[in-house]
Specification:
- The chain has 12 helices and no strands.
- By secondary structure, it is mainly α.
- The longest helix has 15 residues, at 60-74.
- The chain is globular.
- The two termini are 38 Å apart.
- Residues 1-39 have low confidence and may be disordered.
Length: 228
């Protein structure tokens, strides 16, 4: 999903304090003037580079060394529930966690909730827009289906159902038995009034033991019973 705004004047007056979003837009406009077309996230997000890492949240060899320490100081219950930061501002602790483990599932989900709460793809104090965080999460492990599911959840809540569907389809391709992907695909099809398709995915999710009753309740309210 793209979040671009019209820059109407002085687009070439760049100072060290120019906001990152403005610089991004300026780069896109210059790219268009040069005939390059619209840049993708891969073009303007770049890669996440660190002296150590970044590390894969799903790789036990990585998590066994650093995860406990990072979470103990930066991804506390207060951070996860968006109450307050642990070592600094809330966004600072979230980004610290995601810089070490870009595909940290709970931290990514928490970042999406913060973005939704603030009504912006780039929460206050964030280095980059959330699009880049998902891009970096995919970079560290392209086969991590949960990253796609979390991204789809965010996109659905922002109203971008087409992009959400694309992410869920990719999640299903990566892990066809992922109940989270089936549940969210069911929610998406329900919102599109495609109740039979929603029912099919709901059956897959609940047969795999998915715990949340929301989709079941929605479908039963429309007369589509899942049975026991």
């Amino acid at each position: 999903m793209n979040y671009f705004f019209l820059v109407s004047r002085r687009i070439c007056a760049v100072s060290p304090s120019t906001p990152l979003k403005l610089l991004t837009i300026m780069g896109l406009l210059i790219n268009l003037l040069l005939g390059g077309g619209i840049a993708s996230a891969a073009d303007w997000c770049g890669t996440l580079q660190r002296e150590r890492g970044p590390y894969d949240y799903t790789n036990p060899a990585h998590t066994s060394r650093y995860l406990r320490l990072v979470e103990a100081h930066h991804f506390t219950e207060d951070v996860r529930t968006l109450r307050r930061g642990a070592s600094s501002y809330l966004i600072g602790d979230l980004e610290y966690t995601l810089n070490w483990f870009p595909n940290h599932h709970a931290a990514l989900d928490t970042l999406t909730r913060l973005a939704l709460r603030e009504g912006t793809p780039r929460p206050r104090g964030s280095r980059v827009e959330i699009t880049c965080r998902f891009k970096w999460a995919r970079d560290v492990n392209p086969s991590d289906a949960m990253v796609r599911v979390i991204h789809a959840n965010y996109l659905m809540r922002t109203g971008d159902q087409a992009a959400a569907k694309e992410q869920l389809v990719k999640a299903s391709e990566l892990d066809s038995e992922n109940p989270e992907a089936h549940y969210n695909m069911g929610l998406l099809f329900y919102r599109l009034s495609e109740y039979e398709r929603a029912l099919s995915h709901a059956k897959e999710a609940y047969s795999a033991g998915y715990p949340l009753p929301g989709l079941r309740n929605l479908l039963e309210g429309r007369g589509y019973a899942l049975g026991q």
